[in-house]
Design goal:
By secondary structure, the chain is mainly α. 46% of the residues lie in helices and 8% in strands. It is built from 6 helices and 3 strands. The protein has a 3-stranded antiparallel sheet with strand order 1-2-3.
């Protein structure tokens, strides 16, 4: 069954762009189909709320992410941050654990109650590293030794300390 959805795409003027849905003349012939006004209004409200709450969210979650990340990188040998140190999402870190298979580490972390991932959420059912992971660490071995941690404003400092302890113990068991 096909469900309706809504999305936004900003395209810079004069940027090459061709429609992915043909038919009709909506949006200067860039898309066909009938717009869902309730979904558009909902997306607008979500954008408004995000703009209002994002600075507070980032202020809360960035220190939690940094504490987890710095704890891992400073206490576990052969770990490496993937991606830019500053230009990235406030809630997410991706770390390579050289010599440790990510799937084995994830099993141990799950047993300790720490949720993490070896790839992006959109590839959760795939055994293959995502194209983003491959771009960050093109070597096939390193791409299978990465773990992504995502935090939320609902997380606490105690949970981060618990997760760090769990990561340390799991790596020790696997190392």
């Amino acid at each position: 069954m096909r469900r309706k959805g809504v999305g936004a795409l900003y395209v810079r003027r004069k940027a090459p762009f061709s429609p992915s849905i043909h038919g009709g003349h909506q949006e200067r012939s860039l898309r066909g189909g009938t717009e869902s006004v309730p979904l558009i209004v909902g997306m607008g409200k979500a954008a408004e709320l995000a703009r209002k709450h994002l600075p507070g969210y980032e202020k809360k979650v960035r220190p939690l992410r940094n504490a987890l990340e710095e704890g891992i990188l400073s206490s576990i040998p052969n770990t490496e941050l993937n991606g830019h140190k500053k230009q990235r999402l406030a809630n997410t870190t991706n770390i390579t654990f050289h010599g440790i298979e990510s799937e084995a580490l994830l099993i141990l972390l799950d047993q300790e109650g720490t949720c993490a991932s070896s790839g992006s959420a959109c590839l959760a059912d795939s055994d293959e590293p995502s194209h983003v992971v491959k771009a960050m660490q093109p070597g096939s071995a390193a791409s299978r030794q990465m773990i992504r941690f995502s935090l939320d404003a609902a997380n606490t400092t105690a949970e981060v300390k618990n997760a760090l302890s769990g990561v340390q113990q799991a790596v020790e068991m696997l190392g």
